[in-house]
Amino acid sequence: MADVPALRRAVAMLRAVSLSNEPMSAGQLSRELDIPRSTVYDILAVLEELNVVSKRKNGYVPGPASTGVGAAYLRSVPLVNAAAPAMRALADAIDGCVHLSTLRGNEAQILTADRGPDAPACPSWPGDMEPIATSAAGQAILSCLPKGAIAELIDEDLLPKVLEELRAVRLRGYAIEHCDDSSTWTISAALQSRSGSLVAALSVVLPADYWNADNELRVAKALKLTVKRLSDRLN
User: Fold this and answer.
1) Same structural domain for residues 222 and 186?
2) Within the chain, how many helices (H) and strands (E) appear?
3) Which stretches make up the IclR-ED domain (predicted)?
4) Residue at a domain's end among 68, 85, 110
5) Which of 235, 231, 234, 227 is closest to 98 using CA atoms?
6) Do residues 63 and 140 share a domain?
7) Are both 50 and 131 inside the same structural domain?
């Protein structure tokens, strides 16, 4: 098997940055991975140029390109298969549509969907793309990303408003969206791996006439419980 030391070191560094709960400095990476500091700086420069890592004041964090790689993995069959039973149970429990979405470029793409036995037809289905900044699924995904990665995905003039909305999403534990034509409302919660490098959103879509504060809390509780169980299973 071919051995490419620089590639092995780059992958090891990216893995360490992804698994860390805090930004990692070049010195930390050098010590923990036993890589010369000059080599660490050279590799970080390339990874930063490719947007695989992003530089912060106190170290490096995963960049938007690494999130895209994670999303590509999540689009694989294992995730869809793992999520299917939980999605079916949730769709039956709330008698609505349930979507699983991941980040693709600067949009959220629906991977798979299910619906309860008496639920109306879902307005969106697998393959559909939703705006990352304004859709519930998009905001749920963004709520798990570092500020630098968010800035790479959102237009500069929209960024302050989006960051403010994401603070509310994190406090609630879910994002909510009312359709422009007032026909549906959507609640989405983030599904995240322990390392933070793999992020998806599980969403519930219901008719607009079903919306009120009590139903929002009931559906959100069921959604967050499903997300927790699925996250535990994936991790």
Assistant:
1) yes
2) 9, 8
3) 65-235
4) 68
5) 227
6) no
7) no
Instruction: Look up the CATH number of the domain holding residue 152.
Output: 3.30.450.40
Please name the amino acid found at residue 134.
T
- Same structural domain for residues 38 and 130? no
With a CB cutoff of 8 Å and minimum separation 6, the contacts of 224 are: 173, 174, 189
Average pLDDT over residues 45-53: 89
Same domain, 23 and 40: yes
State the number of CA atoms in the 13 A half-sphere of 234 facing the CB: 26
Tokens for 203, please give them.
Answer: 């969403």
Q: Burial letters for 154-171: b for 16+ Cβ neighbours within 10 Å, e otherwise? A: beeeeeeebeebbeebee
Domain of residue 208, residue span: 77-233
- The single residue listed with the structure tokens 């070191």 is 9
- CA distance linking residue 21 with residue 54, whole number of Å: 14
CA angle at 75 for the pair 73 and 76, rounded to the nearest 5°: 70
**For the segment 52-72, what is each residue's pLDDT rounded down to a tens digit?**
888 888 899 887 777 666 655
Q: Which of 68, 102, 118 is the last residue of a domain?
A: 68
Per-residue model confidence (pLDDT) at position 65: 72
Instruction: Give residue-wise pLDDT tens across range 105-156.
Output: 788 888 888 888 888 777 777 878 899 999 999 999 999 888 888 988 898 8
